[in-house]
Amino acid sequence: MVIASAAHAQTPLTLDEALAKAHANNPALAAARAQADGASVGVTAARGQWFPRVTLSESATRSDQPVFAFGALLSARQFTAQDFAVGRLNGPGATNLFTTRIGVQQVVFDGGRTSAAVAETRARRDVATASSDEAAAGVALAVTRTFGQLVTLQSSARALDAAVGAATEDLTRAERRRDAGTVTDADVLAIAVHLSDLRQRRIQLGAGIAATRATLNRLMGEPVESPIGVVAVADVTLPSFSDLSTLFAEAEATRPDLRRADAEIRMATAAARQASSVWWPQVAAQAGIEWNGITAGDRARSWIVGGEVRWSVSLSGADRARVQAASHARSGAELMRQDLRAAVQVEILTAVRQLEAAGARVAVGAESVAQATERARVVRNRYDAGLASMTDVLAASSALLDAEARHTAARVDVLNAHAELRRSLGRSLFAGPEGPASTW
Asked: I need a surface site. Which of 64, 138, 274, 289 has the fewest CB within 10 A?
């Protein structure tokens, strides 16, 4: 079905073009992608605990504090026998110390803390990525529904415009016939009331079109006042859904919220591992080299090598409580995933049935439009021949408007149900390798 632009000022737009604009420009999608990118960087940060940490420092200190002065001379290897004099020890005078240090620390064993942290951040990244995909699916579905709503409103507007034109002609013809004495003032008044009602409905419809157009512009990341005209609703070839288990399996593998639930389970598992790592000690090795001098240009070098074993356990039972809480969180995530899986299957079943029903309504609607069109023609001819009343003409005209509206609504429902089914299966609604949005 091709829908022409309502005004020359409007830019023709197809559904695939609207989806492409939303994919590129929608601010909510950009925000979701930014969060996913930030979560990806977090994985790199967590992996950094496996690598040595190098520290470089440069300091300059001046003091007459005896202990500092004593240590500064020793560090610079400038201590002499005269510095043991009691007077020199108690009143060394102002002493400088210039120090350059390079230190390296490497965690040798941490009881699985780092590996658990890396696993948790990877799962968190996958959660953010799946959430971004969910946001994309939600925006695409909103664009499709808004596009379909605009199609329906514009189709209704065109039908009303045509009805207003026909009613205006009927009013003129009825006035001539009244003047000729073949009809009464009641017939003219009935047409005038009908024409007034059509015009009021058209005015209200215009407001709805403007609001829907603004919503579609917002979803596409365009200025809300941008003029657009929907030009086409692509026909959807309805497949046969004899085996729903295949659709369930597809959703199990690709649905973003199911992938997010899987990642949340992995995240909870990693958190439980991290909580349990408290029972293991941490072992680290460290080494350093420094240059000390009482002047900036004359320094002595020294080095240090060592290791550390650290084991910190709470005696209050807090560590055990954290382990238990993490275990419960993991169990809860697994149960939520089971419930979500069942909810997804219900969504798929509902979308399939709605798509089938909408497809059947399209065929019936086409027949209804053809029948209503023929009935309106016959009734108008009978009225011209004096064999039908104006009430019959108005009823036939209203029936044709209703039939056209139901047919358009059914076609839009097919589009929406098709989009809902693709979303429920985890398929992208944006044009890509699978083809345009109307492609199954």
From this structure: 64
Please report, for the domain that includes residue 154, its CATH number. Answer: 1.20.1600.10
Please report whether residue 125 resides in a domain.
Answer: yes
pLDDT tens digits for 347-363? 999 999 988 888 888 88
**Residue 264 and residue 321 in contact, taking contact as beta carbons nearer than 8 Å:** no
Contact assessment for residue 168 and residue 189, using Cβ atoms and an 8 Å cutoff: no
Which residue in 57, 60, 55, 81 sits closest to 293, CA to CA?
A: 60
Number of helices (H), then strands (E), belonging to the chain: the values are 10, 6
Say if 69 falls within a structural domain.
Answer: no
Residue 434 lies in a domain: no
Per-residue pLDDT reduced to its tens digit, 363-393: 888 888 899 889 988 988 887 787 887 778 7
The answer to whether the Cα torsion of 182, 183, 188, 191 is positive or negative is negative
Beta carbons of 436 and 16 less than 8 angstroms apart: yes
Flag whether pLDDT at 434 surpasses 50.
no
- Domain extent at residue 179: 11-54+111-280+316-425
* DSSP conformation class of 185: H
Residue at 125: amino acid letter: R
User: Are the beta carbons of 232 and 3 closer than 8 angstroms?
Assistant: yes
**Do residues 2 and 231 lie in contact, with contact meaning Cβ atoms separated by under 8 Å?**
yes
Nearest-angstrom CA–CA distance, 213 and 227: 8
Number of domains within the chain: 1
370, containing H or E segment: helix 318-384
Is residue 250 within 8 A of residue 24, CB to CB? The reply is no
Q: Is residue 395 part of a domain?
A: yes
DSSP designation for 238: P
